[in-house]
Specification:
The chain is an alpha+beta fold and about 60 residues long. The protein is built from two helices and four strands.
Length: about 60
């Protein structure tokens, strides 16, 4: 599974690293994926983070 953050869309709310710290972290005022591919044990939290993103900046593939 692969997670992607659209930096142009991201508003830097910090929700995704709170929801899935194994996959996301903040880099300045934008979220970034720091684990690729997403570890199997973090797939559920990664999907939750994508679902909860208020601006739909996260896409998940696989």
């Amino acid at each position: 599974m692969k997670a992607i953050v659209d930096k142009d869309t991201c508003i830097g709310c910090g929700l995704c690293p709170e929801e899935s710290p194994a996959v996301f972290r903040m880099d300045g005022d934008k979220a970034v994926v720091h684990t690729d591919p997403v570890p199997e044990e973090a797939e559920e939290s990664c999907r939750r983070a994508a679902d909860k993103c208020p601006v739909d900046a996260i896409s998940v593939k696989g």
